[in-house]
Structure formats: structure tokens, C-alpha cells
Amino acid sequence: MENRRKEIIAYFREMDRSYFMDSNKDLASFDHALPIGFEQTISQPSLVLEMTLALDLQPGHKVLELGTGSGFQTTLLAAFADSVFTIERIEELHNRAKERLARLTIKNVHFKLGDGSEGWQEQAPFDRIMVTAAASKVPKELLEQLNNGGKMVIPVGTSVDQELLLIEKDSKGQLHTTSLNKVLFVPLKGKYEI
After folding, report:
1. Distance between CA 86 and CA 15 in Å, rounded?
2. For the chain, does the N or the C end have fewer beta carbons within 10 angstroms?
3. Is residue 43 annotated as a catalytic residue, yes or no?
């Protein structure tokens, strides 16, 4: 597990964040969230890494990502999971991310354009779920789509006060929640909008 963690950190440090940005490329090296248009952001790098490490990705894992955005987080997930199913509601961001990942010849990502607040039922269950927008509460649909032994990272709260939660489902289907950090994400749209 420690080796896996080191591999993820090493891969992350080699990633060129500016590749995933259409503007503000000169600010890509700063540890800040930056706008990518449509009132969306590319998360601060330290938070992307923290959230990825919290998922404890393993080679055979099937991952659901809500909020493709620029494709930065998607690319990191794809490098350490078997498959990634990612949903983006903004068509322009969806198309740009698809093009970026195609140029990187990443082949284990499945894209969907639409409202991700209720997950991707047709592809469930998932071993890991990554939510990159804040929900008013943890969506029950996502809990149902999480495999036993699975983990989900999700920001939950209000527009000004959010907690990054790690939710683990044990082998019997019982849920255990840990608060990882105070965060501030763009709101999840749809059923669980803040």
C-alpha cells in the first residue's frame, strides 16, 4: 500500500496541470483552484492529490467520478484504476476533456454527458467514487452504487461551509464516515444541490 501511495505521488508530480487548462496557464503551478469557464474550477493540486490518496486506488478498481471538469483528476484516477466512468453536465467541458484524454491515449475512461448527482446506475456497482462538487447531503443513490468494501470521497455542506468526507462501506454494507478536511467546492447541480 505504501508503494502504491508513492507511485501515485510520483505520477502526480509529473503531471502538467497547464495541459488541462485553456486559460491562466501561467498560474498552473500555483496550489490554488483556478477557473476553467462555466463557473467551474480546476481544483488546487494538493487537494486533488489528497482526495486521490484517500480513495486508496488498486489496479482492479472500477471508479465513478462526478464532475469531469478539465479531465485533470480523471487522468490521475485512470492511471491507477482498471476503469473510470466520469460524468460531466456541461457539454463544452465534457467535449474538451474527451479530446484531451484521447490525445494522451488514455483508453480506460468512459465519458457521459449529463446530471451526475444520482450516479451512473447502469454501470454500478463501483469500488471507488470521487465527487468533485459539493452536495447538500450524501446522495443515497451513490451509497447504493458503492460496492461493499468500497470508498467514496465527497464534499458535503453549504455554499460557504463544506467538509470533505471519506465514506467507507465495509464487507457487510455498513457505512463509516471520516471528515478529512474543510473545503470549498463548486456546487453539485441536480437533486442534491446546495
Report:
1. 19
2. N
3. yes
Length of the chain: 194
Q: Under a CB-based contact definition with an 8 Å cutoff, are residues 21 and 34 in contact?
A: yes
Helices 45-55 and 72-80, interaxial angle, to 10°? 30
Q: Tell me the C-alpha distance between 137 and 192, whole Å.
A: 7
> Could you list the pLDDT tens digit for every one of the 194 residues in the chain?
678 899 999 999 999 999 999 898 999 999 988 889 888 888 899 999 999 999 999 989 999 999 999 999 999 999 999 999 999 999 999 999 999 999 999 999 999 999 988 899 999 999 999 999 899 999 999 999 999 999 999 999 998 899 999 999 999 999 999 999 999 888 888 777 76
Alpha helices in the chain (DSSP H): 2-14, 45-55, 72-80, 91-103, 140-145
Task: Round to whole Å and give the CA distance between 15 and 188.
Answer: 26
* Residue among 103, 118, 133, 112 nearest 41 (CA): 133
Read off the amino acid at residue 97: A
Burial of 3 (0-12, 13-18, 19+ CB in 10 A): exposed
